[in-house]
Design goal:
By secondary structure, the chain is of the alpha+beta class. The protein has two domains: 2-75 and 121-169, Butyryl-CoA Dehydrogenase, subunit A, domain 3 (Up-down Bundle); 177-299, Nuclear Transport Factor 2, Chain: A, CATH 3.10.450. It is built from 13 helices and seven strands.
Length: 300
């Protein structure tokens, strides 16, 4: 019993990193928790015998679990758009906005943005694993190669392809929460006022709006990708009623909004901001997925 307790303590020392690995691999906090729990079960079955570096062992095992889950997703959520991306918006992590932005920003330094998760979702499972483990968690290519059953050289090339895809597709974002908040609040104010030109003014000319209304709802409920400020504003007017319900929160570590009506979430919006303008809007309005979110934190 004492040995198992010690094993559990050693596992807890690494739980945070394992959760971070799994979230970046799977894009869902709930699925990440399941993967981390499976890693614990596998460690428990070994009894810790022959494991000299528990952190490295657990990171590798968690990566393998996540890779298997990604490979088993036989039904794609949707057909990708011509640029390789669809309307899919990952499950968000919603928190209350910190009262003192600069001091509290460090608390969310481990958050992974929705925009990055959208790009990662478009990678092949093996590419995603190689990029996440090596570039984000410094796992050696030799260790990753054993997971994907390729040579270290091939694994390095795979990670390089993924790195270029991530670099080219991930929009630039201002890390300052204060500037993010000003842009998002300006967008909300213009939406509530129905001020078309004010909305256009706060958007980057090449802004992208991505709305995920759920696989079952399809286009009928408004799943779409819209590009360009004026087109985005026209599309955003369909969600204008939500602006009156929306409050500013942190969504995956960046400023966004959550709209709640009669205790039920109606939408979560994530924004990327650069040079004071909104460059991307990611709206999750899938009722089934929204119902599973933990929105208790924004009430704090």
């Amino acid at each position: 019993m004492r040995g198992r307790r010690r094993l559990a303590e050693r596992f807890e020392e690494h739980r945070g990193q394992l959760r971070a690995v799994a979230h970046r691999m799977l894009g869902s906090p709930a699925e990440a928790e399941d993967a981390v729990q499976e890693a614990w079960l596998r460690l428990d079955r070994t009894g810790g015998d022959g494991i000299d570096n528990p952190g490295a062992w657990l990171t590798t095992v968690t990566g393998r679990i996540c890779l298997d889950l990604l490979r088993s997703r036989t039904a794609r959520r949707e057909e990708p758009m011509p640029d390789g991306f669809g309307t899919f918006v990952p499950d968000p992590v919603v928190r209350a906005l910190p009262r003192a932005d600069p001091e509290q920003e460090a608390l969310h330094s481990d958050s992974v943005g929705i925009a990055l998760l959208v790009v990662l979702e478009a990678l092949e499972p093996d590419e995603r694993l190689a990029f996440v483990l090596h570039d984000m968690f410094a796992v050696p290519f030799a260790d990753i190669a054993r997971i994907v059953e390729r040579s270290p050289a091939a694994t390095r090339q795979m990670a390089g392809r993924a790195r270029r895809r991530v670099r080219d597709a991930t929009p630039a974002a201002d890390p300052d929460l204060g500037r993010q908040r000003r842009a998002v609040e300006a967008f909300l104010a213009a939406s509530r006022a129905g001020d078309f030109e004010a909305l256009v003014a706060v958007l980057h000319p090449d802004v992208v709006l991505r709305v995920d209304a759920g696989a079952l709802a399809g286009g009928v409920a408004g799943s779409k990708v819209v590009r360009g400020a004026r087109k985005v504003v026209t599309g955003a007017f369909h969600f204008r009623h939500l602006a009156g319900l929306a409050r500013v929160v942190l969504v995956n570590g960046a400023v966004g909004t959550v709209a709640v009506s009669e205790g039920r979430p109606q939408s979560v919006t994530y924004a990327t901001v650069a040079d004071g303008l909104i460059t991307g809007l990611y709206i999750l309005s899938d009722p089934e997925r929204l119902a599973r979110l933990d929105l208790s934190a924004p009430e704090a």
